[in-house]
Amino acid sequence: MNHGPDLVLPTRPADAVDRGDLDLFLPEQAGRPPVVLLVHGLFPEPPPVLPRRTPFFRAYASQLAHRGVAAVVFDHELTGGMRYPEAAATLDRVLSAVRSSSEVDGDAVAVWFFSGGGPLAYPLLAAGHDWLRCVALTYPLLPTEDIPGWPSLADALHGLGGTPAVLTLVEHELPAFVAGQQALLAARPAGLTTIEVPAAEHGFDTGPDTERGRAAVEQALDAVVGHLAALRRTDAPGR
User: What's the pTM?
Assistant: First the structure.
């Protein structure tokens, strides 16, 4: 039976709370934790299993929950082709719902974009939200040409400012993805951390299983959680 891709990192599943349009994964610790939204990539045709239900994204969310932060998995319109404006509107709606939840800290949010979901980062970053405390991009598609009605890379970088960003790159990337990734690297954002995965291909975190692949996934997870944890220490009373 086709159940979608798995994550190369062995993962103990965490419980998911169904909130209608999204699944919320909460850590065992009490309190209102920071939260990470996981944003899936582009599918030219609807996949047999939607990203929200795949072991891959549920494993990423579980890994985050085990590290003490909440995680959100949801589906958007890129499961049906290049419907970027609609997907951006869905992302905004989900972010609003998550930030208004009493279960998480709505002022400590990270958003993690994968693959063809990368262009959705531009409107979010360009808005310059003060509650966006980290952005992660894993083998992302990033536009290099101006698209009418869509923020440019320069707009996104201006809004990003010094906000921490975690970029995961593979050595053998899809040719169409390379230019955008290199443009981001050339811009040298102040808060950028780059994780390079030698000998790996696009989608490395679904396999084949290698020590380098597992290590890169762990490094990205730890970096995102570390930025959110550092934020909470900085915001603690008396600091």
Answer: 0.95
Which DSSP letter does residue 80 get? G
Query: For residue range 58-115, what is the model confidence (pLDDT) as tens digits?
Result: 999 999 999 999 999 999 999 999 999 999 999 999 999 999 999 999 999 999 999 9
Nearest-Å Rg of the Cα atoms of the chain is 17
Q: Which residues contact 208 (CB under 8 A, 6 or more apart)?
A: 8
Residue type, 156: A
Which residues make Cβ contacts (< 8 Å) with residue 25, sequence separation at least 6? 14, 15, 16, 17, 58, 61, 62, 64, 65, 70, 71, 72, 73
H and E: helices and strands count for the chain: 6, 8
Q: Can you tell me whether residue 96 is helix, strand or coil?
A: helix
From the list 21, 5, 69, the residue with the least C-alpha distance to 209 is 5
Report the amino acid identity of residue 152: S
Distances (CA, A) of 52 to 23, 108, 204, 213, 230: 8, 22, 19, 22, 29
- CATH for the stretch 16-235: 3.40.50.1820
